[in-house]
Amino acid sequence: MQLREGDLNVLMALVVGTTATRARHSETCLSTVNGSVATCEYTPGAKSLVCSGGLNRKFSAGNFRVRALTLCFWPVSTFDPTMVLTLFPSLHEFTLTLSPVDRLEEDFPETPRLKVVNMSGLSLSRLSDTAFSRLKNLNVLDLRFNNLTEIHLDMLPDHSSLHVYLTGNPWSCSRDWTWLADDGGRTSSVASRVVDRDKLTCQGQPYREKPIPLVMALVKSMQAECPRQPPFNCSCTLDNVVWDTSRLYLVPIITVDCSGLGLTELPGVLPSNTTSLLVKENQISDLRPLVNNEHYRHVADIFLDDNLVESVAVLESSPWLFNFRVFSLRSNRLSQLPTYALDNALERNRHVVDIFLGNNPWQCDCLFTPSFQDFLVKYFTLVKDNDNVRCAFVDGDENSFVPIRDLSRSSICAPPSEYIIQPLDLLNGVLASLIILVVGKLGYDYWNFKKTGKVPWIVTKMP
């Protein structure tokens, strides 16, 4: 195997390391570089063989005495462990480094004496789950400084003496890394063998530069608290994690989605630090958990679209109303709102961003609508679906389906001439007439007494 012309300069760029180990490998490998020719140096005392650019003719057939094999500047992008390691049956240590290798063609063969595998400084992007499964006596596995984005628990041999090194890879935490979180079980014993575990960070979004063990601990906690048991077959997602102000711990940002499950009530338990709750397209009418359930105290966004909510009066003066960020009540059965209480809460709420109230059967009359109309105008920037906040359909009412914001006061509150006389109005008229009659009679009797000296007839009959 020969190193192609033009590749050497590219491979030499890999020599610059960020650790003492990589620098040592670089020095060892450079001592054997000879242009595009495969060269090897054997040290009899250490029984070590270092080759650059592939195996030269002298060692291409293998050697039983070699215990430590180092391959540098491998000339192709794939590597076959079976083809190479079977040539050196006495190997204790194997190193492949400073090479453009991005894939293993085969798993490592059974090599009983092999204790150290160092494959750092390559371009490996994926490994099979069984790549190292036949290495029964492996003590050290070094996969640092590759392009690996994930590693499954099954990839790591379950050896009590195994030490694994994984830093320097662009790990994607969108995959299942929960085994790396210490929980005291079998996964904890495997995780503890990852020597540089505390230095591993997520490189992809949304947890970029966050420590993987801390992120995965939050994922495990969220999964344990997620309301998944029937009837709450909800799904929970860790959308992001942010450092607290002291940068001592991570704060999770969690979304719980319980939409379209036919629920008749809100979940009784939510993961700690739940930020958003989606319960759309259910049959929920009771909002009391927002008032008396501690799990809802810090939920910032609640989406209750397409439910059976008829009133939000229960939320008056509740702590949640003073701290929410998004509240969506589209397509429910709301006809009125306690506008004064809601106005008071919004005046003090520094977090509110969006409110959605459209597609509800709003009552349009002179008692409720003027104050509600004022509310919509005042919070026009918050009520994002103002155009869909419309009067309910009433047969014969010209205001049916008209946006409440656009109604004139005269169309809501009809002039007195258009009022229909009610029985109470008749009673009030009769009472007023009697009062006038009594006052008039009293005035007449007083005038008659002054003029003639006669007292009213009823006075003469009094004892």
TrEMBL record:
PROSITE patterns the record matches: LRR
Q: Which InterPro entries match?
A: Leu-rich_rpt, Leu-rich_rpt_typical-subtyp, LRR_dom_sf, LRR_TM_domain-containing
- Could you give one GO CC term from the UniProt record? plasma membrane
Q: Which SMART domains match?
A: LRR_TYP
Signal in keyword set: yes
This protein's UniProt keywords: Leucine-rich repeat, Repeat, Signal
Highest taxon listed in the record's lineage: Eukaryota
Q: Fetch the Pfam families from UniProt.
A: LRR_8
Under what name is this protein listed? Protein singed wings 2
